[in-house]
Hints:
By secondary structure, the chain is of the alpha/beta class. It has two domains: 5-126 and 305-325, 3-Layer(aba) Sandwich (Rossmann fold), CATH 3.40.50; 127-300 and 333-356, Dihydrodipicolinate Reductase, domain 2. It has helices at residues 14-24, 39-49, 58-63, 79-88, 103-116, 130-140, 170-173, 177-192, 304-318, 326-345, 353-356; strands at residues 5-10, 29-35, 69-72, 92-96, 120-123, 147-155, 198-206, 233-240, 245-251, 262-268, 272-276, 279-286, 289-295, 349-350. The strands form two sheets. Strands 13-12-11-10-6-9-8-7-14 form a nine-stranded mixed β-sheet. Helix 5 (103-116) packs antiparallel against helix 10 and helix 8 packs across helix 10.
Amino acid sequence: MGNPIRVGVIGAGFIGRVHLDQFRKQPDVRLVGVTDLDRSLADKAAASYGVERVFANGNELIDSSDVDVVVVGVPNQHHKDFAVRTLKKGKDLLLEKPMALNVKEAVEIAKVRKETGSLLMIDHQMRYTWPFRQAIEQVKAGELGKIYNAKTGWWRLKGIPGWGSWFTRSDESGGGPMIDIGVHMLDIAIWLMGSPKPVEVFGSTYAEFGPKKIGTGTWGTPQWDGKYDVEDLATALIRFDNGATLSLEVSWAVHTDSDNASFVHLMGSEGGASIYGNRVKYTGQKFGRAYSVEVPQPADVPDPRSLLTTHFLDCVRERKTPLIGAESGVVNMAIIDAIYKSAKSGKSVSIDCKALGV
């Protein structure tokens, strides 16, 4: 197998620990470093996951000759700087979603990746969950035909994370649920639709809970003397270059009938697919009759984060293009930027993917 891949993780909070746990389970991997602004978190993570060294900061970890691969799992505002530095050092990168605060930063990261030839993968683990892996098989087999319309979303009823912390400050997060969980649903839906390029977006955002300090969830640590200047619900309609359309609705807090599960509905010329939580249902018409078939989830399915981590390491070893690379990250950020701009102006916003290099 050759020399072990030496991994360093920037961020020892929840998501950083998730990555540490996944990489320590992989063969031929050494966890050589971890760092966090809170040194005590880094020390605890190192002790818990057998990490060899705690670095003083992210730049020191990236610059270390002992590190081959960098994992960035920190607040959104730091993604671009750590990503660019990692890639310029010729090291491979697993970058938490969203790719950056905005499309300008995402394009900068993609440009550096192309110039350096380093490997970049965005951490969209939902592509590896069983329902979406099942659906993409049917899409690739042509069972749905041409997908001309889709609807996706994720309604959390009471789940504003870390009120007043970086999650709810637009200069540090880039936005609310649209950039937090909406980016997941965008990524999934566009992938299932065959990765068409967006050309026009109309969006609206609302903040009916956060400003009142209600609708909070259990994720993150509240800072009640902090700030809330992001949305808690966002909607959008996206038109693509092949004429297909996608509607998107996401919330951290909303009054509606939902069990907090994500959903994707694909409407194709030959059939349809509906994924709701762990359920997958296919619909269509045969012999003049409509049919609806639900595919049960197997009793034992692989952990999606394990599948993603394995794929990433395979790409590192074999120098393969990762499933979720810079291009999809830029497209997702371009749409999210356009949604926020449209929400402010009340008008649709055009996207020129060629000008963005994708």
